[in-house]
Amino acid sequence: MADEALFQFLHSEIIQYVNSVESGESENGRCVSKLESMGFRVGQGLIERFTKDTPRFKDELDFMKFICKDFWTSVFKKQIDNLRTNHQGIYVLQDNKFRLLSQLSSGKQYLEHAPKFLAFTCGLVRGALSNLGVKSIVTAEVSVMPACKFQVMIQKM
Amino acid sequence: MADEALFQFLHSEIIQYVNSVESGESENGRCVSKLESMGFRVGQGLIERFTKDTPRFKDELDFMKFICKDFWTSVFKKQIDNLRTNHQGIYVLQDNKFRLLSQLSSGKQYLEHAPKFLAFTCGLVRGALSNLGVKSIVTAEVSVMPACKFQVMIQKM
């Protein structure tokens, strides 16, 4: 419980700071991309630790299951609630109570701030997949807080 | 173990980012003070969670023991190794293997970078004490990595 709090508080501080720094015209875009790239590097580091004693993955779906279960549980203390795929390289990970949104009020007026709270995690997933040898584009979408969907598009080499 | 890694990686990212942003003449000073103030707010938040079900503290020494044991263990997965005081408001907390320095090489040439790696934690302690109603100045000092000493000077009202 303490660890979660530490991560959540630190995550909020980062958002606040990056947001205050990356100001100007395209402010929101730059803030989001900065947070994403931080997440990317953290994701790369984490997946190395997590998979140290893991057997080899069979395939792409096997990776994704690992991300949804083990990886998500380590970072967010719960599994992804729903994983869907079109079997052509697109995966949708749904978290019905995403921890990093749960501090935000669920009012619609805060929806515009959601991207800042999701960017780090998009990067986290992209970084983890990247170290597993999978290039991807990860985006996130919120319709009703604190539920959200992460869409992973695998980039074929 | 995963949680520790998450905190460590995130902490490194923050240092790197803040350091890249707060450049200029007094670069190091501003970077350190920014990190300290982030730590302060995180410390304030954490201590609220941690002390939710804790009995009231008897006195200043009782606070400090809580910081050295429970608080330190939650954040750094180990206790402070040694706590000393002059009984006049100065406390020295020694950690013989401080986690946030353990990634750094112990070579002397890196000693100059140590303040950046300690600032967040100085703030963390100051923030925690502040929410317990104790105003303090917290500084840190490294002689041989990864051992370090945090000095807490309680400010009498």
TrEMBL record, chains A, B:
Keywords: Endoplasmic reticulum, Golgi apparatus, Neurogenesis. The keyword Endoplasmic reticulum applies. One of its GO terms (biological process) is nervous system development. It is found in: Endoplasmic reticulum; Golgi apparatus, cis-Golgi network. It holds the Pfam family TRAPP. GO terms for cellular component: cis-Golgi network; endoplasmic reticulum; trans-Golgi network; TRAPP complex. Belongs to the TRAPP small subunits family. BET3 subfamily. Component of a transport protein particle (TRAPP) complex that may function in specific stages of inter-organelle traffic. Specifically involved in the early development of neural circuitry, likely by controlling the frequency and amplitude of intracellular calcium transients implicated in the regulation of neuron differentiation and survival. This is Trafficking protein particle complex subunit 6B. The gene is LOC113065588.
